[in-house]
Amino acid sequence: MASILVFFLSMAAGVATGQPPLPPHTSSSGKCDIPAIYNFGDSNSDTGGIAAAFYPPGPPSGETFFKRPVGRASDGRLIIDFIAEKLGLSYLSAYLDSIKADYTHGANFATGGSTIRRVNESWFTNDVSPFSLDIQVEQFSQFKDRTIYLYNKAENEAQRSNLPRPEDFAKAIYTIDIGQNDLAYCFRTLGVEASRTAISDIINQFATSIQQLYGKGARAFWIHNTGPIGCLPVTYAKIHNPPKGFHDKIGCVTGQNAIATEFNKQLKAKIIQLRSDLTGAVFTYVDMYSAKYQLIANAKDQGFEKWSTICCGYHDSDDDVYCGNSGKINGTSVFAGSCKDPTKVISWDGVHYTEAANNWIVTRITNGSFSDPSISVDETSYLIQNPRVFPAPGLDHCDKATHNQPVQKSMVTTSRRGMVRRPNETMRLIVTTFISVVFGFFLGMNLSSTLLPAIDLGYIEDKYSGLSSQALLNVWSSIRRAKGISLHEPEDTKIWVPTNPRGAERLPPGIVASESDLYLRRLYGSPSEDLIIRPKYLVTFTVGYEQKDNIDKAVKKFSENFTILLFHYDGRTSEWNEFEWSKRAIHVSVLKQTKWWYAKRFLHPDILAPYDYIFIWDEDLGLEDFDAERYINLVKKHGLEISQPGLSANSGLTWQMTRKRDDSEVHKEAEERDGWCSDPHLPPCAAFVEIMAPVFSRNAWRCVWHMIQNDLVHGWGLDFALRRCVEPAHEKIGVVDAQWVVHQTVPSLGNQGTAENGKAPWEGVRERCQKEWTTFQIRMTLAEQAYLKTMNGIDRLNSTNS
């Protein structure tokens, strides 16, 4: 672990000081120094913050290692403690604990019960900390400003003895482990499935905090995703006779883990985006969910008792006696002390992990197999043993003893930043080493970099002179993958990753491509150069050739920032080649099918992952007064997750809600006919758009797609149910008045029915629509009743002060 993070931080230090990313150099007398850790999070990494702010935990917490309570939710050390040990640093002092605090090597801002978003609960109701992530970041900001001031004002070393050096902030590692309490809060207030709608806001708030830390000089981020919240033993103890499918094969709550998985998916996507936005930073995403689930699923094989065993505390359907407290279970007085051997138990108190489990997890996340990028001890050792991969000078944060070898000045030049290097040497050595490794393993030997002198790599440095430290980490991830192509891999090597998508459990996580896109690719050249433009939005039309002129006008309203996808219900596709834009469009043809049939089968959310907004529109829309880019800007401005353009007065209006207004940019409520709106926040007076021209955010579409029924092809009833996919629906669903369209009410598929029993074709289609409406309402009601029935008697606490 130490060598991984040393490499990780040394690269970030290079960014912070204006020098190239550098690996650690070691000698018999010294090693590179990571000066500090600044930690943010909840009780998974709280080393005394909430104990200092409120009530400290009593015995038996801390008994295994510290031999006394020390403000940790465990019998001993936490993961953050083991990380500090591996780096040779002292345990982190909590920012809120002023007694004998030592901030020389960092500080801990985490507190038990913390959330990413501020929530309307307190420590005294549901153990929710007032120190949410944004508050922790503000505390760090004050900490940095004040300690730098005091350090610079100090008159001697004694006055600086407990303060961090100002230059260490740029070289420190910033660790973050938070999010579980946000999900627990959503479970309590929204229910499990509806919690999905809140994830986007939570992740955006997380990103804001990261950007603020970056603005305060943070450059190296080590971010844990959230663990399998459905595997908390305290929840397992309260559920008896659950319905089929409620638990997974090892007993974890399926629905809760699905939400945690979605949270992690969006978190990783956001980190990928942050890598692009904050090019001076290094981000390592640690898949803590998979590491913990692997331990839970294989508890006995790893020397632990059943994963649901709780070491300290008693919990059943009706009673709770929390760790270190006295109470009654089934009328019997008990004291909740610790178990006989905490080293054999995974869960300390039903929510948090024992020291033994924390140690097991730490040893597994040090080899890079649960991280992105995948940097392991082996790679770091390789870099240490091959120091010419990067130029040696510039490691000003390493021990002086590491710079024993003199630099031959006649062979080097000095850049504007004072950095000593050979011309083109950095990129030449990176690429040469990469080629050597790959060729070497394929040929069964290592090729020296000197054997490739004829390759002129100067153009590479010119092209990639701005290569960020994150990009260099990715280079070394590639080396790892190349190096992993071994002709001598043991035959008995087996992979089973239960958190991979179903059917892909036998694959290493790094090769699993669970998402895709609709970007068109070339059949030649380099894959990395395929895409000149990556469209951010998708627009689909379900069309017949008779509407070609209208569609031609409509498509021209969308820039190259949109992928165009046409669903052809009449089977005629080749005729569209008369339009130049059709050559970059995607055409899918199935006879006499509706747009919702197409959407369910071709617009899976994992296929649409790159698109921020998805337009799923009918063919009979007049867009003369519509501007797609301005529409997107208004949607973002007003926070709409589901929307539609306003309909002009001559559009054959059905609902007042969708009528265009002349005095506003956007409206979210309307007055309907008497008796239609018992609640002004519910459809059709609010939280409502029609299904002719809806626009969905990426996250909203993920929910809506799952709500579309395979056999209900007309989508009737969806408009009234869209509110279930965003929260609060009356704020996040609306009509954009400033960008309006005309609904031309062309029958199209309405005439594709069969004339029978004296009825016209369109009448048969309309009857089917009405039947689908009724069927959908019944299914939704029954599904909701079944879910609520399973929740009876289940304590929704899932509330954790973790």
From TrEMBL:
<dbReference type="InterPro" id="IPR001087">
    <property type="entry name" value="GDSL"/>
</dbReference>
<dbReference type="InterPro" id="IPR036514">
    <property type="entry name" value="SGNH_hydro_sf"/>
</dbReference>
<dbReference type="Pfam" id="PF00657">
    <property type="entry name" value="Lipase_GDSL"/>
</dbReference>
<dbReference type="GO" id="GO:0016788">
    <property type="term" value="F:hydrolase activity, acting on ester bonds"/>
</dbReference>
<dbReference type="Pfam" id="PF05212">
    <property type="entry name" value="DUF707"/>
</dbReference>
<protein>
    <submittedName>
        <fullName>Uncharacterized protein</fullName>
    </submittedName>
</protein>
<dbReference type="InterPro" id="IPR007877">
    <property type="entry name" value="DUF707"/>
</dbReference>
<feature type="signal peptide">
    <location>
        <begin position="1"/>
        <end position="18"/>
    </location>
</feature>
<comment type="similarity">
    <text>Belongs to the 'GDSL' lipolytic enzyme family.</text>
</comment>
<dbReference type="InterPro" id="IPR035669">
    <property type="entry name" value="SGNH_plant_lipase-like"/>
</dbReference>
<keyword id="KW-0732">Signal</keyword>
